[in-house]
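User: Please predict structures.

Assistant: First:
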Amino acid sequence: MGRNNNRSFGVISLLGLVLWVFVSYAPQRAWAENPDITEAGDILQIVLPATAGVATLFEKDWEGTKQFTKSLGTALATTHAMKVTFRKLGPGESDKYSFPSGHTTSAFSGASFIHTRYGYLWGIPAYLAAAFVVYSRVQADAHFLDDVIAGASIAMLSNWYWATPYSPQVALTPMAVKDGYGVQLNVLDTPLTNPAARSEPEVVSYPRWRFEFSLRRAYLSENKVTAPSDTGTQFSLDHFDKIDDPTTTAAVGLGISLDDRHEVNLWFAPFESQDHGYFNTPVLFQSTVFPTNTEIRSSYRLYETRIQYDYNLNPSGPWIGKVGGALSGKWAKVKLEMKNGPLAAEVQKWVVLPLLHLLGGYQLTPKLLITADANWIRMAANRHFDGGISLRYQLNRHWDVGGGYRFYSTKFDAGAIENEVTYQIAFFSMGYTF
């Protein structure tokens, strides 16, 4: 149970971090980079993993030293491989190595190891320091929000695979004797912290938590914008050059199975892209008229936070059926500016929509599961549909991998902005159940 609490605290910290950075960054006011915050983040992303490594040496925790080396090495190698593979443009087209954030991977590798290995007392301030590193990258406009989500997720998953709580090699356990009770002293040849020496019973207990990291390639099919919705000129960002399409993005989710029938899921999924192109006719956008035959740069961000409840209709059979509902909070931000001119304008707005959720699936083998799901609503000028099919393979009782396809289409009218956007998404996911 203690290890499960460690994992759940780490996931909640990540999701809380996402919300904190988003709420801090999203309000309708201009942010400018603070060089002191940026420099402090640069320092902390080195200090945190260094502290974790030095702590293992100070404690003479040689098993911890090995675990941290493997955890940090796996996380950094994965991050670097993804950077050179996907070559995602950073904000402002700064570089092509924005995804995932290396600073965040480094900081969260140190923080999550300190927490897992040495507990809450050291873990809480370490996570706060890692959160500051994330904030430093976003406020500096060095990374998109999904870049830092990916970096933190990679670090935490790597840590959960390699790291275990620190325990001494001497253990006291209660025992019963003929005329009373006693205590048994066990001196272990292999430390309790050695993952190869652990033996965990195959027992399903509730609540069960599941963290999922989803790596996505999102292909833009449509993106129509009107701002304000009643007087602005509708234009299509999908008619621009699509320099950032398909875009690489990430989503994270936390599922809680309360028992074999009831579960709650929390998801955060951002879509972020930038582009440039020309308008065929003058466009009125937020009281600013953008002319024709002039290169325009666009920045588009759509963040969706979803909380969802599901009821499992058939928890014991090979056929799976779930029905439920969700609340979807969407935040959209669109910015236009002339490449070589004074004109610039932006708009951002929240909207909340209820959704109906349906899921069906079949257990092909004890380890292989295929599912199809859909989320839908149509209400006044707002509509939403997303659905897809996925295949998931259970590696062991904790780990699973999967992949599939999703179709995502939403239209909302928030007064200040009307946005109709459609993506087709190919994804790979990794889940950890605890």
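Second:
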Amino acid sequence: MSMEMPFWEKYTLTIREAAEYFHIGEKRLRQIVDDNPSSDFVIMNGNRAMIKRKSFERYIDESEAI
């Protein structure tokens, strides 16, 4: 039996998980990733972008608007 780990305990989140966790639309989150491809909060898993949760939290803390 596999227990799903809560979002707040995960190191990386999928775009869908990050959108739900941060209350940002998936489309807007994909745009943020596309605009910041080499930022410290994006890690690529093949061709799939993953969000480093704590790094993205810092990015949001430092942003004036999303």
